[in-house]
Amino acid sequence: MNNFKYKPDGNVLKSFMKSDVFFRGLRGPVGSGKSVGCCVEIFRRALQQEKAEDGKRHSRWAVIRNTNPQLKTTTIKTWLDWFPEEQWGKFTWSVPFTHHIKKNDIDLEVIFLALDRPEDVKKLLSLELTGIWVNEAREIPKSIIDACTMRVGRFPSMKDGGATWTGVICDTNAPEEDHWWPIMSGEVPVPDHIAKEEAKMLVKPDNWLFFTQPAGMLERKTEDGSISEYVPNDTAENKLNMRKDYYPNIVQGKTKSWIDVYVMNRLGSIKDGKPVYPMFAPDIHVAREEIPVANGVPVYIGIDFGLTPAAVFGQKVRGRWMLLQEIVAFDMGIVRFAEVLRQDIATRYGGCEIIIFGDPAGDFRAQTDETTPFQIMRGAGLSARPAPSNDVALRLESVSAPLNRMIEGQSGLLIDQRCRTIIKGFEGGYQYKRMQVSGERYADKPDKNHFSHIHDALQYLMLGSGEGRQILHNMSNAPRPFQAKREFDVFTRKPKHRREGLWSRM
Description:
single chain; 506 residues; alpha/beta; Rossmann fold; 3 domains; 30% helix; disordered C terminus
């Protein structure tokens, strides 16, 4: 440990690490030392922990990332760069990933968890912890942050002396404007579409602090206000640990939205991928006023199951699709989600016929349960059926068709302005991810991200309600391939004579 050296480079980073407040959030550009600072903060707090009766400083931390690939390739990699196995002890690569450091009087257990693994989420909600580090918090919903605050301060137990310091630390690149982070930090007001009860959960407690680092570069503008170039920012943090050309190199070939988020540390969305629905236009497809429920018209609901269930409500009125409502949940089992859905239907759509379509994969039993999501839905009094197909191309076409359709001079699909996740997905959040190769190459399927669940639900709604019927009909009537039993001459419409010798092998 005598060789361990770290010095935060930057006033904001120093202030973040000096603070003893219960919740601390650090937002900055890429390369600003956020993740490393959080790694060192875990170790520093382990050093400060008061000794127990056995003479050891016991502490236990959880490190959280949105997905397992991100956890392994980014978060754990950074941790092991600073705490390599050959110096700090073996890293356990079985789930849950764990690094148990026993050095001198330190007994530090660090557990790494990914939120896309149900077993990891369940593990998080049962852990007794000293502290939690949430890496890249813009990917994490507020409900998980709230859950984290309830799991810390529980190790060591009070009978063993308790934790000297306990709390939650977070780091992130700049999130979107309606994310819980800028709302709670006071940078933006609470959006109008957020319900009053939810808004109460977005008031910053007195024991929460947010720290914002300077931009990595500065903009130079022409007289007309357009950006002419990016130049180094003298107040940028962590410069001592980076090459001087780090930021000038990474901005090359990047979009302004990418630079704004990752270099300038500005709130906003990244439009680096290719939008799935390039034909979407907010002025055409988003209603200026709330869309009322049409009495006597069936309400179609599309549902995507899983750990992040989502539902979309829509009606077809005079040939036009009206998307009325979205429900996006996190860490909610299908039993609770079905109850939420049932209550919303009873409250808002009581006089309408309800027709529900869900992910066809939801008709399969889970390994740990004999019931399927559709059976659970029916048990809650909701008659749900699988969408007719799970073919991705077909699902996308079932949404593209009404987007492109014009009926009496109006769009074939209109979205209520309160469906913020759907709209942001249409605006580019739901995208084909850019491939890490030269040229303009993208993945052949939409990226699985925050926007994909609600858009999957929309696709099931559209496909189930009949938008894909014509496409399915055309597919079913398409010529089918066949295996000829003998050679056939298509020009004479007669069987070919079998060739002998060399020609028979050509």
